Amino acid sequence: LDGIEMSVFVLTDGEKYVILPNAKDYKRIGENDTGLNTGGMGCISPVPFADNIFLSKVENQIIKPTINGLNKDSIKYRGFIFFGLIKVNNNPFVIEYNIRMGDPETEVVMPRLKSDLLQLFKASINKTLDQIDVEFEKKNVATIILASGGYPLSYEKGKKITGLNNINKSLVFHAGTKETNFIETNGGRVLACTGFGENINEALKNSYKTANKISWKNKYFRNDIGKDLI
Ligand code: GLY
């Protein structure tokens, strides 16, 4: 299949479902999608090429048959379904299913959720998802992953991270960090810098502003997240 990938998420109670904001992840380590695969080097939400016509195809051709299929096979499932999709000639195809959220998709999807996540989880357990009004933030959201130089191959840990106290109007999610006398790197993908904007450009600009304020020796990030879509 030759096309462009994106991620769609639902929370289901087994019969009903809520469609969460969609996202596009950038998986390769190098700019212009080159080099080794990683867990994800950046993400944006919403996905500009996922218009209403395409999203209704996703719902009718993929989401509904998936939930019906689970029931037909007597699989009682309540929770997230992550549809890894590819758009080929304006039609969606499933590349993979996961029964979890994505990373770094979560760092752009959850900041767009205005409703209480705990209430959603309760409704999923109690099979009352149809009784809940779920609200989403209209804003665009982007996240840039700051990684240890060398990742996804070998990399050094224990580098002192500075600039974390200098962040405003953005969110910084910790992944591969550890607190000693200071905050230090402790993994390959270290931090996710999430920024907001009225459009994708502004969201990316704010994420990069935050990404550039944070430092450690051999910090690495991609400078081209979202650029293919602008
Ligand atoms: N970002 C892809 C995943 O979480 O599987």
Query: Could you tell me which ligands this complex binds, including any ions or cofactors?
Result: glycine
- Report the C-alpha radius of gyration, rounded: 18 Å
* Broad shape: globular
Mean pLDDT equals: 97
Secondary-structure element order, N to C: EEEEEEHEEHHEEEEEHE
How far apart, in Å, are the first and last alpha carbons?
23 Å
Poorly predicted residue ranges: none
Percent helix among the residues? 10-25%
Number of helices: 4
Give me the secondary-structure category: alpha+beta
Q: Tell me about the biggest sheet?
A: 6 strands, antiparallel
Find the count of extended strands (DSSP E, 2+ residues): 14
Residue fraction in strands: 25-35%
What does this structure look like?
The protein is an alpha+beta fold and 230 residues long. It is built from 4 helices and 14 strands. The chain is globular, with a radius of gyration of 18 Å. The two termini are 23 Å apart. Bound molecules: glycine.
Give me a quick take on this structure.
The chain is 21% helix and 32% strand.
Task: Record keyword descriptors for this entry.
binds glycine, 230 residues, alpha+beta, 4 helices, single chain
Describe the protein's topology.
Elements (H helix, E strand, L loop, with lengths): L3 E9 L4 E3 L4 E2 L2 E3 L3 E4 L4 E4 L6 H21 L6 E10 L2 E8 L7 H4 L7 H10 L13 E9 L22 E4 L2 E3 L3 E3 L3 E9 L2 H14 L5 E2 L10
Antiparallel strand pairs: 1-2, 1-7, 3-6, 4-5, 6-9, 7-8, 9-13, 9-14, 10-13, 11-12
The structure holds glycine.
